[in-house]
Structure formats: structure tokens, C-alpha cells
Amino acid sequence: MTVSLAAERTTAVVEHRPRRRSPFTWIVLALAGLLALLMSSPFLLMVLNAFKTGADYSSHGPIALPRSFSLDAFSNYLSLVDFPVALWNSVLISTVVAFGGVALSLLSAYPIGVGRVRGSGLILAGLLLSTMLPHEALIYPLFYGAQATHTFNTVWSVIIVFVVLQGAFGTYLLASVMGTVPKEILEAAAIDGAGRWQILWRIVLPILRPTLSVLVVFFFIWTWNEFYIPVVLLADQSSQTVPIALSTLRGQHSIDITVLNAGSLLSLLPTLVFFLIFQRTLNRGVTAGAVK
Amino acid sequence: MRRSYWWYLLPIGIGFTAVVAVPFAANVVLSFFRWKGGIAPLHWNGFGNYSDLLHDANFWLSFRNSVFMIVAIVVIPTGAGILLAATLVDYLGKRFGARAASFLRATYYLPQILPIAVAGFIWSWILDPGSGSVNTFLRSVGVSDPPDWLGSPSLALYSVMLMLVWLQLGYPLVIFMAALSRVDPELYEAAAIDGAGWWRQFGAITLPTVRPEIFIVVLTATVAALKVFAPILILTGGGPEGSTLVPSYYAYRNFFELSQVGYGSTIATVMAVVIFGVAAVLLGWQRRVERRA
After folding, report:
1. Which residues of B touch A46 (CB under 8 A)?
2. What ipTM was assigned to the predicted interfaces of this complex?
3. Closest in B20, B22, B178 to A133, CB measured
4. pLDDT tens digit string along A240-261?
5. Of A6, A145, A279, the CB nearest to B23
6. Number of C-alpha atoms within 13 angstroms, CB side, residue B91?
7. With contacts defined as CB-CB under 8 Å, which chain A residues touch B269?
8. How far is CA B91 from CA A20, A143, A194, A215, B227, in A?
9. Three-state SS for A62?
10. Which residues pair with B34 in a beta bridge?
11. A184-204 as b/e, with b when 16 or more CB fall inside 10 Å?
């Protein structure tokens, strides 16, 4: 699929000054296409096997084409896992963390990037360190704390933890972006009588909106895909996220591979759709994250 | 009224204290105790856990495996990422159009958006010795006795590394391609007119351009490599015979399977120290390079 699509696209786009295409150029393209095929082959295999029946899979193996189109694996998966609940948990956690984390980042980056309070460097260093901290070094006290506050096995434990963790990273990133907001604009607003709160909302927020939207997208996907902390804090089925629900099924050998493929496909679909919609934002975001 | 800015730091101050500072401090304190967790009594152990750690062959093995993780997550993807980014941007992109390049980029990036639980499942199934796709394919082309990719102690680590390279490649690629968009295309043209071939251009233009990004990628990926957990839990569980054991999985096992919470905390504390140390070295190195440039 990938190679043919790539070829189609290349013929459709004509550059202003097409270069000479030597045989070597075609070889390079073929190699790049082959690599694309290799990189996407796990996805292709998953799609191929999610639509097979269990019998078809066991008699013809994983790389044969399906003999007939079947949705059995999907309905089986849905009967084993309460997918709507997991989906709702994931959407709730990721959305609250994405917006909560960005709001927290905005608030805390403001005094550092614009206010330049004393000790800014130290605060940023602390936040940077916390983004590097292995989750292992937090997990047992968090596990204990969640039980003590009765948030264990509820989405709120994970939401609180990730709002702070993503917020720490976001603050680090936003503080340097905020430093680039022109001083003249801020001073003009202050002279016109705007308070700090108003300057944040009316001036800084609108200027930073592109960066903030990138952060929302990133926080959403990162939180959706999180594994370690949710697997510990969300032991109960009623609070599990989509990836955790899938992983709890894996160890059970009685389950058809086709069912697990269907489950995997369902589990990655939301982030894939999200990714396709926000692809441009993401590209911008990777750049924003890289250039400090 | 300089002080009023501090109010804005209140939320993160509270959150940071509750979620990072206190738990981390508690973890360090726990590392000096023997504790089975829950309501079991705490036993003061001083530096006992740390000296046990020094003599624990499993722990050293897990650190040796971290070096392999760095090769799979930092060295190979970063190197390949630069070459691929340069190929896509200033070779294929120019001859077949920017859309071809961005299509290929999106394909290479795809594994990066995958939940790790899904990636882990797909790979453990693809590499399954009996009904896995790889071995089914190998048998169909006449290999009668294909290897047990994840089950053989001498192979499992390399199989895990293969999956990690697949998972990681898109990240440096996307960052490097974004960096290369800063380069004025006329620079390459001028170099070509002066007779510089592709490799010469790569060394003289591409590499210096992406140098700041190389640093970011190496730093973040090294930290990620020292923390790698989920792929190990899902693919091999540290086995076979501990051949794929990594520190974070070893800590997890002590916490939640062996009920040796104090010892798990010790491993986690040492991990944090190692990560901070490596990050400090990398940051210092970057500062020196920047000053020279």
C-alpha cells in the first residue's frame, strides 16, 4: 500500500524545476519506499489479521490474506473488555490533562518568563529535573498516596499526577517562549492600566495561542499512551484506560490472536485519528519543542 | 509590587510538592528501610540496601543492558535519522516533490503515536516462535528451524533492540527535517556549483545545521533509554534468564512482585542519580561546544 501510494503522490506533484532523475535517484526512492513498507508492516499485519476469523487464522497463518471479511474479532473483543468505559476514561483523562496541564503551564510560566521573579533559573532547573525523573522513583509513594486520598482506582489519581508532570514540562517550554514576547507591548498594556492578570489573559495568551495549541495536542497523545503510572494506579476495570485494558488481556492464552489484533486496532484508532487531524500542529510542535 | 507574581506559582508549587517532591523524598527515605509494603513494619537498614545493590549481579546486568538500550534508542535512530532526514529533504524532496518527502516522513513517524501497549503486543506476536509472522515467513521461504526471537537468551536483547529502533526512528527524523527547513536551498545549490558532492554537502551544510537538534535528541533519548520499561514488561518480562532485564523493570519487580519495596526504592533512587548525572554531563558538554562555536 505504502509504496504504491508514495509513487502516486510523486507523479502528482511537479516541482517548479524538476531535477534530472537518474536511475540512482529511483534506487534511492525504492529504498526509502521499502523502509516505509518495513516500518508500517506491523500495522499492515495487524489490520490484515483483525478482520479474520479465528479458524482462518489458525489454519492459514498470520501472513495469508483473509478468506472472508469478518468482524467477529471486534465483537469478541468488545465482549471481553468494556471498551466504552475504557474509551471514556481515556478521553476524560487525556482531555482534562491536556487542558489542565496547559493552563498550569501558562500560569506558572508567566512569573518566570514575563515577571522574571528572583530564582527563576532555580525553578526551571527543578522542573527540568522532574521531567527526567524516572517514574519508578515516584510510583510507590504515589500508589500509597492515592490509597490514602481514596483516589486509587479512580481516574482522578492519574489526572492529578499528569497535570503536574505535563505542567512541569510545559512550564519549562513556555517560560522561554514567553521571554520572547516584546516588552513594548507589555509595557503599553501596563500604562493603559491593565493589571497582571489582564495582561496574561488579554495579551500573553493570544500571542502564545499557537504554542499552546501544540502543547494541548502533545499532552493529549502523551497522556493517552501513558503506561507505567496508569498500570499501577488503575487496577480496577472500571477505571482503566484503553491501552491498559488491552494489556490486561494479553497474558491470557485462551484469547484468539485475531481478537487481540482487533483490540489493538481499536486502541490505536483514536490517537491515529487525532494524529491525522493535527498532523501539521504536531510537526510545528516538535519544532517548538526542539528549538529553545 | 514585585511580590504579586508569586501567586501564579502557587498551583504548580502545591502540585509539584504533592506529586514530585514529597514522593521522591519518600522514595529516598524508603531506600534506607527494609519494607514489604502495605501495613508491614518498616525495618531500618541504613545503607544495607545500597551495599546489597553493589553485590547484586542482576542489578549490574540491568545496567549493562541499559547500554544496549542506549544503542537502540540513541545511537542508531539518531544516526539513521540524520541520514534519512538529509535524504528526504535535500535529495528525494527536490527530485520528487515535498509531498513525497512528507508522506514518507509520516510513515516513519507512525510508530511514535502508538500506545506502547499496542506496539508491545504486535511485536510479541510478530516475533512469536511458533505462529509469529516472521517465522511463518521464514518457514515459507525454506528455513526449517527459525530462531525463537524473544525466548532465546542470546537473541532476546537484540529482538527488543530491533523493536526499539522501529519505535524511535520517527522522533529524530521529524526533528531533523524541521531543522533542515531552516537551510536556504541556495546554499546547497551554491555548494553544488562549487563541485561539492552529496556527502560533502552533508558534512559541510547539513550536519552543522542540525547540531543543536542533535543535542536535544541525544539528551532526551538517552534519558528515555535509561528509563525504558513498558517494552520490556510487555515483550519479555526481563527474561529469558534475565537477558533483557533493565533497571526500571527490576525496580518494578521488587515493588509489585517481590514485595521488597525498600530495595525497589533503592534501585529507583540510583536510577534517578545516574540519569541526573548523565544529563549533567550532556548539558555541560553542550555548553562547551556552544562556547567554542
Report:
1. 122
2. 0.87
3. B20
4. 999 999 888 876 767 788 898 9
5. A145
6. 23
7. 137
8. 11, 51, 52, 32, 36
9. coil
10. B43
11. eebeebeeeebebeebbeebb
Whether A13 and B174 lie within 8 Å, measured CB to CB:
no
**A33: nearest CA partner in chain B:** B104
Q: Residue B35 — left, alpha, or beta (φ > 0 → left; ψ -120 to 50 → alpha)? A: beta
pLDDT tens, residue order, chain A (292 aa): 233 333 333 334 444 455 567 888 899 999 999 999 999 999 999 999 889 888 888 888 887 888 888 888 899 899 888 999 999 999 999 999 999 999 999 999 999 998 888 889 999 999 999 999 999 999 999 999 999 999 999 999 999 999 999 999 999 989 988 888 888 888 899 899 888 899 999 989 998 888 888 889 889 988 999 999 999 999 888 999 999 998 888 767 677 888 989 999 999 888 888 878 877 766 665 555 444 3
C-alpha cell at B138: 521464514
Write the CB contacts of B163 (distance below 8 Å, at least 6 apart in sequence): B119, B123, B231, B235
CB-based contact, B174 to chain A, within 8 Å = yes
Spell out which residues of chain A touch residue B135, defining contact as CB-CB under 8 Å: none
Task: Tell if the CB–CB gap between B264 and A136 is shorter than 8 Å.
Answer: yes
Please give, rounded to a whole number of angstroms, the shortest distance from the CA of A147 to a CA of chain B.
10
For B268, the closest chain A residue by CA position comes to A137
- Reference B32, options B189, B224, B263; nearest CA is B263
How far is the first Cα of chain B from the last one, in angstroms, to the nearest whole number? 41
* CA distance linking residue B270 with residue B275, whole number of Å: 9
Predicted local confidence at residue A250, as pLDDT? 72
Which DSSP state fits A18? Answer: P
- The DSSP element (H or E) to which A205 belongs, if any, is helix A205-225
In chain A, the percentage of residues whose pLDDT exceeds 90 is: 46
pTM: 0.88
In Å, how far is A225's CA from the nearest CA of chain B? 4
The answer to whether B277 contacts chain A (CB < 8 Å) is: no
Instruction: At A236, list the grid cell.
Output: 480496577
Of A6, A43, A271, the CB nearest to B103: A6
3-state secondary structure of B34: strand
**Residue B88 · residue B101 · CB < 8 Å:** yes
Give the pLDDT confidence of B275-286 residue by residue, as tens digits: 999 999 999 998
